[in-house]
Write a structure and sequence with these properties.
185 residues; alpha+beta; 3-stranded antiparallel β-sheet; 3-stranded mixed β-sheet; 2 helices; 12 strands; globular
């Protein structure tokens, strides 16, 4: 009987990035996890659309921090930006370092830039608010030591298409008002 082993890969080649999780059978045959396929196709489609489009791709409004508030969603109360778009954390980030630094990653997951201390809505703690310096020299907002991002596939306020999504070698999570990753799946 063939056994399955879980294996993760992240390969980068210039501007091309492919992050996928697959399963390897003992006989050497490879099959992709359906969830990984959808994430890869979604990332490829978004990047191809951006490259071929005469206009800029959709970017969740407000990629700089004015106000961070709480929004009730199907996965619970989450942090959102000034326009109501979900704010995400990346599982590979460190409290003082983003592991989504440039290129395809930031094209899909724009960092929430720190253009001055953002206002916090009711129920949020100023003690959890911070910032980190990005490779570009700009600052990114953190909450609960998590660098914050929006997701370009969320095209309307309150959407959580990036929740528990595996991309770029890690998992993306919406954040609770307490600064914790919401692990809905």
């Amino acid at each position: 009987m063939a056994g399955w082993r879980s294996k993760s890969q992240l390969s980068t080649d210039g501007d091309a990035i492919c992050a996928c999780r697959h399963f390897e059978m003992d006989n050497g045959r490879h099959e992709l996890n359906p969830r990984a396929i959808s994430g890869i196709l979604l990332a490829a489609f978004t990047l191809a659309l951006a490259a071929c489009s005469s206009s800029a791709p959709h970017v969740s409004p407000v990629t700089h921090a004015d106000t961070i508030t709480i929004r009730k969603t199907a996965i619970g109360p989450i942090l959102v930006n000034s326009s109501g778009y979900t704010l995400y954390a990346f599982s590979l980030d460190k409290p003082d370092k983003s592991n989504c630094p440039t290129g395809a990653c930031t094209a899909l997951w724009p960092p929430l830039e720190y253009g001055g201390k953002p206002k916090l809505g009711p129920g949020l703690s100023s003690e959890l608010l911070g910032k980190i310096r990005r490779p570009s020299g700009k600052y990114q907002v953190t909450y609960g030591s998590h660098p914050l991002y929006t997701y370009t596939v969320d095209t309307a306020p309150g959407q959580t298409h990036g929740e528990a999504l595996e991309q770029f070698g890690g998992i993306w999570y919406a954040l609770s008002p307490g600064g914790h990753e919401i692990k809905s799946r």
